Amino acid sequence: METVITVSVIIAMIMLGVLLIHLLNDRHNERIAAFHYSDALPGVGRRSRKSR
Questions:
Q1: Which of 4, 10, 31, 50 has its CA 20 to 30 A from that of 21?
Q2: Average per-residue pLDDT in the chain?
Q3: In the chain, which ranges are continuous DSSP H helix?
Q4: Looking at residues 10-37, what average pLDDT do you find?
């Protein structure tokens, strides 16, 4: 009986983790869609060149 309870608790925790990750991914995708044309990482690829 202990084994059944332990396995069911582990499965419930895995399902809760999957749900949490899914919700966080949806929120992240909404933020990406809202700022589609902004820089992903500000400053990357913008090196100032020394003029001669």
A1: 4
A2: 83
A3: 2-34
A4: 89
Distance (Å, whole) CA 18 – CA 11: 11
Where residue 18 falls among pLDDT bands split at 50, 70, 90?
very high
Q: How far apart are CA 18 and CA 48, in angstroms?
A: 44
Going by C-alpha positions, the residue among 30, 18, 31 that lies closest to residue 10 is 18
Closest CA to 8 of 16, 44, 27, 51: 16
Alpha-carbon separation of residue 46 from 21, 37, 42, 43, 50 (angstroms): 33, 16, 9, 5, 13
